[in-house]
Amino acid sequence: MHEPDAGWASRSVTAALVQASALGIGAFHLVLAGAVVISHTRGGLEPLVLALHALAAVLSAAVFWRPLPAVVYLLPLYGALVADFCIAQSPSSALACAATWCAIMAVGAPILFWRGWPAAVIPGASLGMMVGAVVLSHEDWGSRLPVFLGISGLGIIAISIGFVHPLRRFAARADVLADEALSARRQVAASRDSTRRRADHSRLVHDTIINTLGAIAAGTSDEDRDIVRRRCEQDVHVISALHRGEAEGERGLFEAVDALASVQWTGMPEARFLHLEEQFPRYVRVALRGAVTELVRNAVLHARSSQISIDIAGHARGVTVTVTDNGVGFDLSQAGWGLSESVLGRTRDAGIAVDLSAAPGSGTRAVLSVDTDAWLGVLPTASWDAAPAVRRIKVVACWHWALVLVVFGFFSDLVFEYPNRGASLLATALVAGACLAAALFLRGGRTLPAAMALVLIAAVQVGFWWEFLGVDQGRHAAYLWQPVSLSPLVIVVIIGARTLIPAIVAMVGLVVTGVVLGPVTQGFSDAGAVVTVAAVLEVAQCVGWLMFTRVLEMVATQATADRMRAVEAQVEVEGRTAVEASLGDWAASGALRALDLLALIASGVVEPSDGAIRARCAEEERYLRQILLLSPDLIHASRWIVRALDEARQRSIALTVRGGDEDLPEAVADVFGAMIVDVIRTTAAGSDVTMTLFAGSDPALSIVGPRDLKAPRPPESEAEKQWTVRRQILGEQALVEVLAR
């Protein structure tokens, strides 16, 4: 029924057309079965035909409720219509008129949801089959009804093409726009998520390896030896598992804090907090735990606190955690990386509000507030609302349907010989004029005023009266009636009014009008039955349209939800890729050497109080803190920068890299990175080198070093095409500039 790679809008439109058609055709069978019962028939085949309609109605319901092929209800419908024509006794009977009207509308159905040869062959073949059934089974009827059936059927085929092709084109454009919007949002969400994950990784390295190295470098007593070794063992376990790609078991806040220090807990009990915490997104839980443990770690290591308390208080939209210590305090303006990133940076990225107060000699107090409204603003999602596009699809479908039906109405009025052509023309003109007036009111996405809705409701009843007069009150050539011509008026009310009440009033009024003009005025004759059948078919069309809009909304909601899950999965994959890249950066930077040192301390091979070990820890700490200064946004450039820093460290070169927060394109980063590493490898040991990366539309690299600094060579295959390398001497220094063209 639709291409497997079609977008959400195309799939939604096709599914809505199939299900709405199934509902409408099911209604046709009920109307046709009623016409069989009230009409005079021939051949004594009424029970068989009624059974056929019942079976076909059940199949239509099955297609409506389950995604079955449309052929399941189309073929039984065509067969039932042929049977109806065969048993009808006269062309003016309710059965003949109902079968004619249903056949005309049914021949266009395959065009609505099929493409290619089925849409080209089946409508014409089914129309020919039904016209042939009339001609062969009723030679005494003459040619008027078969000609009307054939010409009107061809007209409906043209109407279906004129309706569905623009609708499909609009849906295809909506798919393209949705894909572009989701792609842009995915890129933003993936970038935010990748940056957050890389930052979290850096914070974890700071909270474990770097802090432990700093503590050992600052000196430890023999009494603390076992504590230091346990801490080294724990850090080695956490970071090694992370580098192996193993997910760290998520500890609760109470467990994580109690592993660091003795803390006085007040407020909410642990069991209740754990239950509340489960409602938070995982990254919010991780951020809260990381920030609180860093505050406790700072209180123990730096503030020399003897008392630490944590109070947890719940509120309507989350929880507040207050960490207080009686340590030496500090000047907030002199906060280091640990506080600014491991606490403030973590909480900022997770939407956790922090109120921090501290002063030298007065301890520290931090209030962390987790609020649902706050974290929803920082969720790394790629959400997109399909409702406006669905609304536009419904509007486009409505006006195309109205246009093609009005054109066909005038065509039919002028081509066929109506008993009262003037009344029929008036009915069509009324539909055209009322739709045009409603379009003026609905411009700019406005809703129908109550007065205009009443006008449309009245127009439905007046139009039905004029159509009734057009076929001489159903007494002569009643099959010339157009039982779909008034549906645009009700459809405009459906899409334009604030509620469905006006549309329901219009449809109920149509049924009442049909009963009044039919059985009440004409009695239980063929003419009276024809009028009632016409009214019911008009209402069935409107109900089918209403179902089309509802199914469109439901399928669109499901399709966009599926698309969102796919996009979120892509964001997750890209986030994991960013973490893997970050892990690779830390490995390339030589951070694993620091991990090996901590492993030696943990195993007891070396003593943490040894002067040489403390010096090595101090050196590793200084180096890793330099890596921390790299922005987590530098996904492509950072892997080369850390490699260059490690090369420089091994060659005793003082390398300073400036890069800002804007990343380079991957291809440019690879070229610049290879040049940086090449310069470090060819520069004399003990030199000072400063490198600056410029991102943006014109990426550039500048290198300042000793006078004998060699200019790097760009890739040979692209040297003349994309890169410009300039070298100049400035006193005792050399300046090399690399520009990307």
Question: What does the model show?
Answer:
The protein has 741 residues and is an alpha+beta fold. The protein has a domain at 633-740: Heat Shock Protein 90 (2-Layer Sandwich), CATH 3.30.565.10. The chain is 65% helix and 9% strand. The chain is built from 24 helices and 10 strands. The chain has helices at 8-38, 46-65, 71-87, 94-106, 109-113, 117-137, 144-218, 225-243, 253-258, 270-277, 282-301, 337-350, 372-376, 387-415, 421-441, 450-470, 487-496, 501-522, 526-588, 591-603, 611-628, 638-650, 666-682, 719-722, and strands at residues 264-267, 308-315, 318-325, 352-358, 364-371, 654-658, 688-694, 700-706, 723-730, 733-740. The strands form 2 sheets. It has a 5-stranded mixed beta sheet. A 5-stranded mixed beta sheet has the order 6-7-8-10-9. Helix 23 links the parallel strand 6 and strand 7.
Give the strand order of the largest sheet, numbering strands 1, 2, ... along the chain. Answer: 1-2-3-5-4
How much beta, percentage-wise? Answer: 5-15%
Oligomer: single chain
The biggest beta sheet, please?
Answer: 5 strands, mixed
What CATH calls the topology of the domain at 633-740 is Heat Shock Protein 90
What is the share of helical residues? 55-70%
N-end to C-end Cα span: 50 Å
Structural class: alpha+beta
Overall outline: elongated
Radius of gyration: 39 Å
Count of runs of 4 or more consecutive helical residues: 24
Q: What is the top-level CATH class of the domain at 633-740?
A: Alpha Beta
Uncertain segments of ≥5 residues (pLDDT<50)? none
CATH superfamily of the domain at 633-740: Histidine kinase-like ATPase, C-terminal domain
Q: Under the CATH scheme, which architecture of the domain at 633-740 would be assigned?
A: 2-Layer Sandwich
